[in-house]
Amino acid sequence: MELVTLADIRTAADHIAGVAVRTPLLPAWWAGTDLWLKPEGLQPIGSFKLRGAYNTVASLPEEKRRAGIIAHSSGNHAQAAAYSARAFGVPCVVVMPNVAVPMKVEATRALGAEVILVPPPERDDVMAKIAQERGLNRVPPFDHPDVIAGQGTIGLEIVADLPDVDVVLVPVGGGGLASGVASAIKALRPAAAVIGVEPALAADAADSLSSGELRKWPTEQTYRTIADGLRTNLSELTFAHLSERLDGMVTVSEDEILDAMTRMVRGSRVLVEPSGAVATAAYLHHRAELPQGRTAAVVSGGNADPKLLADVFV
Amino acid sequence: MELVTLADIRTAADHIAGVAVRTPLLPAWWAGTDLWLKPEGLQPIGSFKLRGAYNTVASLPEEKRRAGIIAHSSGNHAQAAAYSARAFGVPCVVVMPNVAVPMKVEATRALGAEVILVPPPERDDVMAKIAQERGLNRVPPFDHPDVIAGQGTIGLEIVADLPDVDVVLVPVGGGGLASGVASAIKALRPAAAVIGVEPALAADAADSLSSGELRKWPTEQTYRTIADGLRTNLSELTFAHLSERLDGMVTVSEDEILDAMTRMVRGSRVLVEPSGAVATAAYLHHRAELPQGRTAAVVSGGNADPKLLADVFV
């Protein structure tokens, strides 16, 4: 299987410049002298997903792109697709489950997307039908080289800001973010370790990588974690990237995730959703399992339920 | 009176590089297509004050600096001084009022400073005595050219990220931030308008600038505003900068400040303290009084009481 290259990621960086925010690395002095946070919740849609989605749309031939795009998502990827389409001035359809959080549906509509609500089992059929009828281009949430290359731009920025980084901690859900970041880091700084982090309740990636085969966990299991962005299983493509380029996996508990959310908001004023807190949780609670040294934690997004955020706050 | 120059601000930028965070400009698409936020709450101490304090310490001759520094503050400047001293490995004493919020006292101590709590009226005497006894260097919160030059680096960064900026909105308390930002913007892009913003309940700067003389408002009046960082009056030095370089002032109400806090946290996931919200409040509620065009709002800090933040959230 062909893996994403550093050249692909550099092209993606050119594409997203001026659209995705060039996020800084924030020294988290309250946690230690060697931890930096990469706060992707500062992206205009609140998560790193904009990088991959926008790179995918930017990589389409102009003629095809003009027809518009289609995506399915119950969360951050919906807004990423909508924002990307809006930036190019092309139509966007987002198929969302009819059980999606109303706030997320509204946010997607506010970005100009046509939202189609369907019962979850009908999702793929509806999407295929509309894509076919209107000639729309699919923008997948993680299982595509252009998406992986887009997320990899985070790795380029980490090395640019912290050239002597020793450890990079990155959340693993479908694996697009971790695949991209690991591809960039291992190409630019092979000595640095890239460690994936996932909730113990959705540890399908740790399971797959330790067994050497792609293992899918059933949704009854993965849906127990509060980290809703990390309930997804790997794909063949992301499994191939992570098998080749990741140095290890660490799992964190639900309490550790909540604790990391509280400490990041208090210490660094960084709003974070549960999925975005796992990398920092690994640093705070599993230091002994990690390589030592200058560590960057990818804080992947900040779109949490306001009630939950208010709770972790006080 | 000699005013701070662009060269002074560029020197400050060299000083603070690698210590203060190079904050991005965040497109606030939820508020309009032409608003960007400069989120200074991302500084390691939660406000822009680090820029000026660190530049002041960096500008001391090494021999003098080694003796250490002293500052007085009840809030953000305390942490700015402590963080700066720690970065240089020199002693730091912070004189704080014995009525200061315990959390702020703790945060200052956590950064290694010696905190001395005094009854407010004794502040100046205690500070003079300790400075004298120990040979410490004073780091003032705003009334010093090195502080103004440090805050001015925000202006350099705005023009670097948004070269065709038309309007810059900046909070005005003691006036150090606005003096520095206006000095940078008017030197680099004279066509851009720099507008100061303050609470109507502490509109001493608007009063001073419209009357052409430095007018001090009594604390019984200015302490009515929730924006605790903006209760301070201008000094002769900042009044001189603002008279020469500011294009106008706008005042905002307490309700407008709270509304801007809510909308920034929801729309951009930017935690903001009341003082940090006034510039965005001016854009959201006083658009007709402002020059039109591409607008950057300086969000000066994010150190709000957690209870208040939780309230504006939900």
UniProtKB/TrEMBL annotation, chains A, B:
Swiss-Prot/TrEMBL keywords: Lyase, Pyridoxal phosphate
Catalytic reaction(s) noted: L-threonine = 2-oxobutanoate + NH4(+)
InterPro entries in the record: Ser/Thr_Dehydratase, TrpB-like_PALP, TrpB-like_PALP_sf
Family as reported in the entry's similarity comment: Belongs to the serine/threonine dehydratase family.
Job of this protein: Catalyzes the anaerobic formation of alpha-ketobutyrate and ammonia from threonine in a two-step reaction. The first step involved a dehydration of threonine and a production of enamine intermediates (aminocrotonate), which tautomerizes to its imine form (iminobutyrate). Both intermediates are unstable and short-lived. The second step is the nonenzymatic hydrolysis of the enamine/imine intermediates to form 2-ketobutyrate and free ammonia. In the low water environment of the cell, the second step is accelerated by RidA.
Catalytic activity, EC: 4.3.1.19
Tryptophan synthase beta chain-like PALP domain mapped to chain residues: 22-301
Molecular-function GO terms, alphabetical: L-serine ammonia-lyase activity; threonine deaminase activity
Cofactor(s) needed by this chain: pyridoxal 5'-phosphate
Name by which UniProt lists this protein: threonine ammonia-lyase
Pfam families for the chain: PALP
GO process annotations (BP): isoleucine biosynthetic process; L-serine catabolic process; L-threonine catabolic process
Gene name of the record: ilvA_2
